[in-house]
Structures are given as C-alpha cells and as structure tokens.
C-alpha cells in the first residue's frame, strides 16, 4: 500500500510547468537581445567561453531537484504490515451522480463539487465505519470498494468527475444494485446504509424497485437531492457556453424531488435537500447515528515506512552537481565534450 501523508502538498507541483514556461520565455528574449547587438557569429567569437547548453542543463537539474523535494515534502509512505483490525461501526456505500446535469451551478460552486465537499466533511467525521463509493450516470461503477481507509476514500473522491462514466443518464436503480453488491455477499451484524446523491433528473430504470430490494436485505437508503426545482443551465466546461437541445434551446436541469422522495421512502430512509449550508450533512449524520453498530473486521496497513529519504538524497545529489557545474565552458571538460558544444 502506497500513500502520501501530506498529499495536499502535491499541488505545489503546479509551480514546475510555470517555471519551465518562464525559463523558455526568458531564454528566447535573451537570444533576441543578442541578435539586436550584431552578427551572431561575431558575438560568439567575442564570447568564446560562453556556453549555450550548460545553462539549460543547470536549469534542468534545479527543476528536477525541486520536483523531488516537493514529492519528499508530501511524505510518500509504503505500507509494511497488514493486520486485521476490529472496529465498532456501520457500513456505508455512497452512490454519487456524475451525469452532466450535476455541473449545473444553482448550488455553488456546482452540484457535483458541493456534493463532494459535503462527503469529504462526512468522511472526516467518520471513526470506525466502513465507506465505499459508486459513481453513476447512464451506468454505475464501483469507484472505491468498501474500506476503512479514509485517506484513500478522500483521494478517490477528489478525482471524481463526469468523465468517469461515458454513457449519460441517471441510472439510479443500477447505482443502488451496484452498492448492494459492493457490500459483499456475506451477512453482517453491522448496520448498512446507502447514501444516494443525485438531482434525480431523467431517471432511466426502476429506481424504486431496486431500492425495495435493498431494503429487504436490511439496507437503508438515504437520498440527498442536489440542485433546485427551478433548475439551472448546464455549462460546458472550458467553453463559457451551455448545453442545448436539438432545437438549439438551452437545456435547464431541474431537481426531481418527487423521485428522490419515492426512493427514500422505499429504502426506509429519509430525503434531504443539499443547499449552500451544512443542513443536509448534519441531517444525514443524525440518521446514520441511529443505525445499529457492530464489530467490523477489516484488513489495514498499520505500519507505514517513510520513503521521502530517497527523494531528498536524489535532490541533494542533483543540487551538488549543479553547484559544481559552471555556466561557462571548462577547458578540462571541454576536451570530453559532454555537452556537445564542439560541434560545428
């Protein structure tokens, strides 16, 4: 098992392409300035010790060292020992709608991101429960098998987007059945629940029938409606425009609360609407706390070994090479022509 203890620091890697672009721009500007001074061949003769390749090598060494140090700061760890851990909790499967309509912005920043923010907070509040994630649109897939590894759960949650499911639609029934299968065939004394998060628009299968099947197995189904009944247009990412129907009219996506409520009733659960407050999350946690807990066994990596040392050593080695590598030509190294500077 491999993980990053400070995974949020990996966002610093975005600095790397920005530095590369800045270096390329600065290098081209410098070349343009030299050309303005006069004939390029004459300038080269006036600066016989100047190297055109070594600054590039030094920059490459520095940028690689910086990348390695950022990775080291994120603390990569490898699991060394797996043990069976017993906990007192419940089992929860999350079914998250990732259809294009979940990009509607009637809830800030949009329906999908708001749902992910709420789920992230809920996972932070979990202690001994198991959690798994199913994503669905026109089809349903298990994104994360049920686990007690909350770090992995949040990592998978961050990466969820509409591109994960190619077939569009809102197959709530398929999502419920996939969640039921994800619990496993073995009976459990721990309470089981499904949290369905959707705008319930354009449902394509018998969601109520699938929910009743889950309820017969002792699984409660709670539904979180995301969006507003008045609806909002669906933006097309990166274009600044909205989705349109075949007649060229802007499509307005509306929350179908009736379907959402019917599913919650069939699943012996409750329906709550997600808005720009934490009301839905508090209501869900209150209902989940009513579910009977039981002893849960799970395989977990209980010992992790830090792996950052190798990244730090590699970065220090690159910085050492950069320190001794001069920007100008060296007569001794010039004979070896390591940087291919003697080519005519």
Main sheet characteristics? 6 strands, mixed
Number of helices: 11
For the record, the CATH class of the largest domain is Alpha Beta
How much is the average pLDDT? 85
Distance from N terminus to C terminus (CA atoms, Å) equals: 52 Å
Nearest-angstrom radius of gyration? 28 Å
Unreliable segments (pLDDT under 50, ≥5 consecutive)? none
Give an account of the 3D structure.
With 344 residues, this protein is α/β, with parallel strands linked by helices. It folds into 2 domains: 2-78 and 305-336, no CATH class; 91-292, Rossmann fold (3-Layer(aba) Sandwich). Helices cover 40% and strands 23% of the residues. It contains 11 helices and 13 strands. It has helices spanning 15-37, 40-46, 54-73, 111-125, 150-158, 172-182, 207-216, 257-266, 279-288, 308-324, 331-336, and strands at residues 2-4, 76-89, 91-97, 130-136, 140-147, 192-198, 219-226, 232-233, 235-236, 241-242, 252-253, 271-274, 294-306. Helix 4 packs antiparallel against helix 5. The protein is flat, with a radius of gyration of 28 Å.
């Amino acid at each position: 098992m491999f993980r990053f203890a400070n995974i949020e620091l990996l966002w610093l890697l975005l600095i790397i392409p920005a530095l590369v672009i800045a270096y390329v721009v600065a290098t081209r500007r410098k070349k343009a300035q030299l050309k303005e001074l006069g004939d390029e061949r004459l300038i080269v003769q006036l600066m016989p010790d100047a190297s055109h390749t070594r600054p590039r090598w030094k920059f490459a060494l520095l940028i690689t060292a910086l990348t390695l140090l950022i990775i080291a700061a994120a603390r990569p760890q490898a699991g060394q020992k797996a043990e069976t851990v017993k906990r007192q909790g419940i089992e929860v499967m999350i079914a998250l709608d990732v259809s294009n309509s979940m990009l509607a912005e009637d809830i800030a920043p949009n329906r999908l991101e708001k749902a992910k923010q709420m789920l992230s907070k809920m996972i932070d509040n979990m202690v001994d429960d198991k959690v798994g994630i199913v994503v669905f649109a026109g089809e349903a897939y298990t994104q994360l098998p049920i686990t007690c590894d909350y770090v992995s759960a949040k990592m998978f949650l961050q990466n969820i987007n509409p591109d994960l499911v190619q077939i569009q639609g809102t197959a709530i029934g398929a999502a419920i059945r996939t969640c039921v299968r994800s619990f496993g065939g073995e009976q459990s004394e721990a309470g089981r629940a499904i949290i369905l998060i959707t705008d319930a628009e354009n449902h394509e299968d018998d969601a109520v029938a699938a929910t009743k099947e889950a309820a017969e197995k002792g699984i409660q189904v709670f539904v979180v409606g995301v969006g507003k009944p008045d609806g909002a247009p669906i933006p097309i990412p990166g274009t600044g425009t909205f989705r349109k129907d075949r007649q060229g009219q802007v499509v307005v996506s509306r929350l179908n609360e009736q379907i959402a409520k019917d599913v919650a009733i069939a699943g012996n659960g409750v329906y709550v609407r997600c808005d720009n407050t934490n009301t839905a999350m508090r209501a869900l946690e209150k209902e989940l706390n009513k579910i009977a807990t039981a002893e849960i066994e799970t395989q977990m990596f209980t010992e992790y070994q830090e792996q950052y040392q190798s990244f730090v050593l590699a970065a220090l080695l690159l910085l050492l090479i950069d320190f001794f590598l001069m920007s100008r030509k060296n007569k001794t190294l010039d004979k070896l022509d390591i940087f291919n500077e003697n080519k005519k």
